[in-house]
Each structure stands twice: as structure tokens, then as C-alpha cells.
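dumping these here so i dont lose them again. two proteins, back to back, each one seq then C-alpha cells. dont judge the mess
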Amino acid sequence: MLYVDNRGIPPAVETVAPFAPRRITHAFHDIDGTHSLIRDWVPVMTLVTGFTAQYGAPNAADVPALAAIIGRHRSEEFPEAHRFAIESAGLSALTQMEWALRRAVENGILALPGTVPAVNAEIVRRIWRGEEEFTELPEPETFRRRLNAMSTMLFQAYEILLLRMGRDRNLAAAKTDPAAWRVPGSLEFLRFLHACGVKNYFVTGAVIEYDGDGIPRGTMADEVRALGYDIGPGEAVEKLVGSAWNRKLPKERLMLQLCAEEAIAPEAVLIVGDGRSEIAAGVRMGALTLSRLDPAAERARAIHRTLGTHLIADRYDPAALQCFMRAI
């Protein structure tokens, strides 16, 4: 078990919000940008959401055709979508696609029967602020089903473009030199937590599928293995938990579900991430939050300070982190 307190925190780790000393039994970790550097997702998210907000949703024959249409606009700049990608880091990809579609409706580019303009505008604002669920707002169910179907198709096109625009190339390089594609100290930090008796879970917005034997499959599972993280009961990473193609699963819901299934006290959880969703959820849950953010990520750091994260670090420096994270 791990004991964490406010004493001995070095200057390399920024303390944003004070926290009560506590025992940590579990840790929920984001993957992209938090531990893995394989997915350069911001340019791809900018392209897909920017294209959609500006041009709408073309009537493509299938998802590969849609990806090809969007991909032809790679040379364009989409400033609003780029800002949105930074602001929305950590949100469900379906939420991000929903924002783009709703912006297209606002822009008069996309006409969806059943649109309630005032509600649509309110949801656009809420998504920008980091919210993901709006069931209390009145919209026809037929409209929401259509929006979800379109969001799913865009999500799948995004994944195709993500693989083509860098992920596959980076994954091949990571298989040769995994350390170069991990955040410095990542593997050592996970192993330190595991050695202290903490159960680590990877919780991601990427889709995770399992085969008949319960083995995680898919592109994110491939990346995690390529980087040298062992997954499974009793391993450094206990389980890989992810999203779905056609059903919005915000990280807060995934983490609360883990707490319920495993009888985990939220205040005994360490949440590590670089996105607003996992950090905001951790603060609401009463967990201890550690934001892993590069020094140059000034906007992201400002967002996380506003959210009330407890700690910000740019890397997993064992000597620094172990000053106040001690095995008991």
C-alpha cells in the first residue's frame, strides 16, 4: 500500500491544491500523452472536427471513403478546431465529434431534422467547457440517434486517419525502441506503484475490445504491449479499460464503474492524466490527482490549475515522486 502526504514535495513537482494525507490502493491512468507518446492525435482531431464544422458531413459510401474525403483537406488550417482539440483533451471521441457536428449545424452547413437551435447552442458551449452528458436537455430522440450515428462514423474515420498520419509509423518505431516512445520514467513509476501494492488501471477514451479469453485487442492494446507494459491480474497494469464505437463512455463514468465493481474507495485512488476529463472527474470523486503535462503546455496547465488538480509534473522522476509517495 502507498502512503501519500504533502511533505517533501520537491520543486520539480508543482503543488496546485493541498490534499489530506492518505493511503492509495488503486491508480487510474490515462494513456495518450500521459504514458505513451505514440499517438500525435491533436493534428488529426483538428482536421476531422475542423473539416466537419466547416464543411458538414459528406454523404460518403462508407467510413474509408469518408476518411479519404477528410484527408484531402490536410493542408488546411482550422484554428477553432485546433483550440477545441486542446480544450477537449481527455473527452470521449464521440463527444468531440458531436461538438463538430453541432458546430456545423450552428454554421448552417448541416441540416438535421429535429434540431432545437437553443439547445444545440447550449450543448456546444458545455462541451467546450468539458461536459459530456446532456440528457436533461430537450431534444427529439430521433435527432439524438441520428447525431450519434454520424458521430460514430466520424470517430471511425478519425481512427483511420490517426493510423495513417503517424500512429502506424510511430508504433513501428516503438517496437524497435520502446523507451523513446514512453514519457520519461513512466514504466518505472508504474512498477513502483505496483511494488507498493497499488493496482494500476489504464483508462482510455480509445476503443478496447476483448477476445473470448478476455485478452484486450485493438490498436491501443497493441500500443500498450509495444511499449512494454504488462497487462493482466497481478501485472504492473491490472486491466485496460476503454470506450466504445457507438456509445459515449466518459472517463468519469468508467472510473466510477471501476470503483463500484472493485469496491474501491474513491479517496484511495490516484488519478494520473493529461486531459481535463480525468482530472476534473478525479477532483469531483475526491481522489488524488497528478497531471502529467509538458512545461510548454501552458494552456493545458492553466486548465488543470483551474480544475483544482493537486499536482503537476512533466515527467515521472522517481526520486522526486517518492519523496512524498512512500510504501507502508
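---- next one ----
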Amino acid sequence: MPASEPYRIGVDLGGTKTEVVVLDPQDGVVFRERRKTPLVEGYHAVLNCVADLVRDGACRVPAANSCTVGIGIPGSVDAVSGMVRNANSVCLIGRPLQADLERLLGRRIGVRNDADCFAMAECRKGAGAGYGLVFGVIMGTGCGGGSASTAWCARDRTGSAGSGGISLSTLPAPLVTAATGGASRPRSAAPG
């Protein structure tokens, strides 16, 4: 018997609010909840808030289905040390957020910069779908930027797309058109 498609749990950990959404295999929203991010209470309060939201979301996944968990954070995770850096939510800096959440939840999770997550979502299923390259800017409690294509999310060596840059002069014409908001969608990038 083939395994059923996984549900997806996504968490947006922000400076003001933290929100979880559970998507079924057809991208339908099964559950969504938003809570105030307890930054003033410190790292462990934020850690527990995220873990509680993931647990609440996981309860909505049918027992026969598996689920994946991804978390967008206002910073980046150092690939070598696993510590959060460059976060506007300073209580996260220097903390092993991913490892701590995996220990609390007893499951593997993905943690990525929130601007990268935003750009990738727009590239795959949002306003940027069908374009070769998407650049998104987040203006909220903090400010960040992320770049994505249909196959990858651009990051510089710091793990933050917003701290790097893309030179449009080095990209193929269809990508430049998409990146600069050209009025016509390049034929090569049009959805099939």
C-alpha cells in the first residue's frame, strides 16, 4: 500500500506574532492559529510557544498521514554551529533553535530565514509563479529580503539572502524581465 501524501505544518516566527498553519496534501488550510510572540519573556518562552503551536497543528493531522514541519525565522541558522544569527529577535541569537525544537518535538524540522521562505512561496505558488526569479522584501517588526527561483533559494555565505545581492547584468534576459517586473512574462517561464 503506497504511503499517503504528507501534510505540512508551517510556522512563521515573527517579532510580534507567531503563526502556525497546517496544509493538507492538496494545499487546503486545515488549521491556523496566531499568538503573540513572547519575546520579552526570553528564548525559552519563544521556544515553548513555537513547540506548542506545532503540537496543536500536529493534532489536526489524520493518524494515517505523516507531516513535515518548517519554520521561518527572523534571522539565519549557521550551517556549521547550528546557532541562530542576524536575528532581529535578539533572544534567538546564539541559540540552537532548530536542535532545541527537534528535541522538544521529537521530530526533524526545517528552519530557514523567513524572507527566503516568503520568496520561495511566492515563486512556487504566489504572485511570482511562472517567473524564473523572484525577489521579495518583508517589512514588519524587522526588514528582510529573499531571492528564489523555481529550483532554489539564493543565499550568500551568511545564510541570508537579504544581505547579498543579485546583479541583474549577469542573469539571462528572461530572468531579468521577471526580476525587474517586466510587463510581459517570458515565454520560457510561462506556466506549462
